[in-house]
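SECTION: protein entry
WANTED: fold as tokens:
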Amino acid sequence: MAKKGSILLNLVDLGAKKLRDVLKFFDDTDELFKVGRSTLGGVKSLKSDDIDRILAYRESGILDRELKLMKKEGIACLDIFDKEYPYLLREIDNPPLVLYVTGNKNILNNASIAIVGSRKSTAYGNSMADKFSYQLSTNGFVITSGLAKGIDTAAHKAAIKKGKSIAVLGSGLLNIYPRENKGLAKAVSHRGALVSEFPLLSRPLRENFPRRNRIVSGLSLGVLVVEAALRSGALITARLGCEQNREVFAVPGNINSAFSQGTNHIIKEGAKPVTCLQDILEELNLQPVT
């Protein structure tokens, strides 16, 4: 269970650098409830308005409301100090301080492959996402994706036919986005887990999704990009995976299709081209089980 101080800091949302400085300064985030302005002033990067926000949030009912919602909805919350926090995610440069989880939090430490791609997917892209997600899940991998339309949706649906999936949201767990995937989100939570670093009622703001993508790749051993245009957010996930020392795979596509320009580009940049399950397993030094 996350410390209340960690949840408070997450609600305040100071930004990565300031958060790192606060965590270096305090051995225990619950100390935030015992200190005053002068002590907080000792954190080198905190400005006066940052300290004002921490104190205001501490004295308001915001934290209590969040804790009550968690209890009412049966939502777990892990912080980076929790032994159940995903070990692969803890390794990345900017791991989320807390993770809200519905479903089976234990699978966050299972071997996972991220499958990502365009929201505006083609029949080809959907069929490849379905194929590789199903084959990987029946070989014991958890399939991680972002619950978006298109490739993400196809990957989640195929994974939960016989296996498990993790959906990482760019909104709060009580504000599912896109709305048409509410049913899928519920199914994924029954066969795996829904995860978000954002407070429970957070809206799906544009800036949330690049942050979401680092968690998708960070939870996974590798990232498979199925179909993506040159400006697709899936390429951000691939780049983050590379920075996190994850294996990056891509399904080749029609060279005349705008929907495959991104995947074909990252293959030229060094992503491993994938045409069958064995291509992924060989890179991970594994053998198929089915």
